[in-house]
Each structure stands twice: as C-alpha cells, then as structure tokens.
Write a structure and sequence with these properties.
The protein is α/β, with parallel strands linked by helices. The protein has eight helices and twelve strands. It binds zinc ion.
Length: 311
C-alpha cells in the first residue's frame, strides 16, 4: 500500500466558457472564448479513498448564477464515481479542497463518511466573502446557498501531509487561501494545481513580454499568484490543473506508462525566475538550463493562446 499503488482518476464534471484574455492568460487574447473543463479527482492510495475538489453542479444552476456551462454528458461527481469507477460515495474517507470557489465544491454532502479538509484561509473567506466574490463562493446572493452550508471543515494552516502521500502547500493568489495538492506516486510528484494555473501552458513563457511563465489573469493578488506558479514549477513532475483538458485527458488514470515527466524549474536564457530558489532539500530536482538553441526551438514549438480560441 502507498506510493507504489497510488492512482489518480480525473473526473470531468462539465464545461465552462472562459475568456482567454481576462481569465486564462494575463495579456492573452481578450474577447476570445475557450471552453474549459472542470475536473475533480478520485485518488486511491490502497489505504485511503480520497477526492480532491468536487466540481460543478447541474447545468441550469451553473449557467443561472455563474458562467455559461455545458455538461455534455458529464455526470455529477458522486454519479461518476459510482457508475464509471465503481466506488460508492460512502467509501470516500476524505475530500481535500484546493479552494472553496463554487465550481470546486458541489455535491459534497453526498459523501457521508468523508472528512472535509480545506485551507484555513478559504474556510474563513468562503463564509464571509468580500462582496466582489459573493457569486464566486455562492455566499451572500439571494436564492442560492453554498454547497458547504452546515459542513464542518478541518482547517489546514501550514503546509502539511494531510493523508499519507498527500501534501497540501500554499499557492495563494487565485484566491486568498488556495493550496495545491502534491500526490506522491511511483512516477514522481503529481501536483493537482486547483486554479493556481488553469492550463499547463501557464507554466511556459510568454515570448512577447519576456515572461518566464504565462500566468493566468484571474487573481485576487497577482504578486502571490506569480509566486504560486513558480512554486508549482519547482515541485511538479506532472501537473493536473483543474481546468485543463489536455493535461487531464492524456489517460484515464495517473500515473501511466509513458506519462511525460516535466523538467522542474528549468532556466531558459533571457527569461528570469522572480522568486527564490528550489525549496530546501530539492535543489537536485531542478532541470539543467536550456542552451540558446534549445530555448529557440522550445519557444517556437509553444502554442500561442490565440490559437486556443474556439469561436
Ligand atoms: Zn475553478
């Protein structure tokens, strides 16, 4: 039991329309729309059955109060678990939340035996959001009640291993208390990034601005948000962002044979890291710098966000 057996199963709970410029990429092509999936994750460690986030509600509720939503045949998280993975909701021991935004917390009361584990900073703001974020937390607007009303959360204040092999670490910026989740697996550390990045492309450069990372545009704090992107780059051998179709759909289960392993914190000539070095004890995990030639080929091969627009 443990690291060798640990498997992660991405669950797509539906699709939201997002703007490539005001949401997915800072200085991205504003006005261009992109359909992004909303994933939650089932993790089986052999010892524990865990969810990370619980995703979207039904299409009508999502579209009425939030963004344009399509389910396209996607099930609610508890239905997907039972019908597609053969796991009864009562078997889930714990739900770990990256943050408590509306598209990450639905249906949590379906899991009667689960502990609810969430960042302390998120629990605090979710119950008393800044008015700007009433809708984001579904708290403070008439006619709708947050999915977590009446639920008791276990608050996580410091980076910690909350279950064996499952570590939460601070990645604020998208929201006040956001934490990403590292899952130790037989092929290295898989980081479930929540919304600290939206797509893997956020970790690669923006060549027109000379940014080492093309960071997302949806931040409550851009300084912290940038630092969190660097933090994920330092720690992840593979990244599962909650809104990335490509990263989540390469396989039904992670890790898998042939999974592309990232280069952690790889220097690219001409592009600067802004925040500190690798965390203590991890210096040897950083990839060697690209040569100028490698960098040119790498940058030329990157997708431009405007080519991600769907209409
Ligand atoms: Zn989200």
């Amino acid at each position: 039991m443990g690291v060798q057996e640990t498997k992660i199963y991405p669950i797509n709970t539906g699709w939201l329309e997002g703007d490539l410029g005001t949401y997915i990429f800072w200085k991205g092509p504003a006005g261009k729309k992109y359909w992004n999936p909303v994933y939650s994750y089932y993790i089986d460690t052999g010892e524990h059955k865990i969810l990370v986030d619980t995703g979207l509600p039904d299409e009508a509720r999502a579209t009425k109060y939030h963004h344009k939503c399509q389910k396209r045949g996607c099930l609610q998280v508890h239905e997907h678990l039972e019908k597609k993975l053969g796991v009864h909701p009562d078997e889930i021991d714990a739900i770990v939340f990256t943050h408590l935004h509306w598209d990450h917390v639905q249906n949590i009361k379906e899991f009667k035996n689960a502990r609810y584990i969430a960042p302390k900073g998120e629990i605090d703001v979710a119950h008393n959001p800044l008015p700007l974020y009433y809708r984001t937390y579904e708290c403070g607007i008439p006619g709708i009640e947050p999915a977590y009303t009446g639920c008791v959360f276990e608050a996580v204040e410091e980076e910690s291993e909350v279950l064996p092999g499952i570590t939460m670490f601070h990645t604020p910026g998208h929201s006040v208390g956001h934490m990403a989740v590292t899952v130790a697996t037989s092929m290295g550390d898989i980081v479930i990034a929540g919304d600290a990045i939206f797509v893997e492309r956020n970790l690669e450069p923006n060549p027109s601005e000379m940014w080492r990372h093309w960071v997302p545009a949806r931040f409550v704090n851009s300084w912290q948000g940038w630092q969190s992107v660097e933090e994920i780059d330092k720690r992840a051998d593979y990244v599962l962002p909650c809104h990335d179709e490509i990263a989540n759909a390469r396989s039904d289960v992670y890790p898998y044979e042939g999974m592309p392993i990232r280069n952690r914190r790889q220097p690219i000539p001409g592009y600067k890291f802004y925040f500190g070095d690798m965390p203590a004890g991890m210096a040897d995990k950083a990839a060697p710098a690209m040569t100028r030639q490698e960098a040119e080929a790498h940058i030329a091969g990157l997708k431009d966000p405007k080519d991600m627009a769907e209409y």
